[in-house]
Design a protein that fits this description.
Elements lengths: L1 H13 L11 H10 L3 E8 L4 E7 L2 E7 L5 E4 L1
Antiparallel strand pairs: 1-2, 2-3, 3-4
């Protein structure tokens, strides 16, 4: 039964029904942050916590933490 579930999942990914997991490229990350209203995006680094970056939003400089699921958290 377990093999059948795995095979079904692989077939769903191959057919495009489920997206395959992949990390964002730096360009995709910057585009996503810009779409969320951030500018002056810089100092992008991969850390144990996730990806960190510095940016500005509404005239305020913020530190961002982007986790593996793409959630963005501001850390002032």
């Amino acid at each position: 039964m377990g093999t059948r579930i795995i095979l079904s999942t692989v077939m769903a990914i191959a057919s495009g029904l489920l997206p395959a997991a992949h990390a964002l490229t730096q360009e995709e990350l910057v585009a996503r942050l810009q779409a969320a209203g951030y500018s002056q995006i810089r100092d992008i680094k991969s850390t144990a916590e996730g990806t960190t970056a510095r940016a500005a939003k509404n005239g305020t400089d913020v530190r961002l933490l982007i986790d593996s699921s793409g959630q963005v958290k501001e850390q002032k």
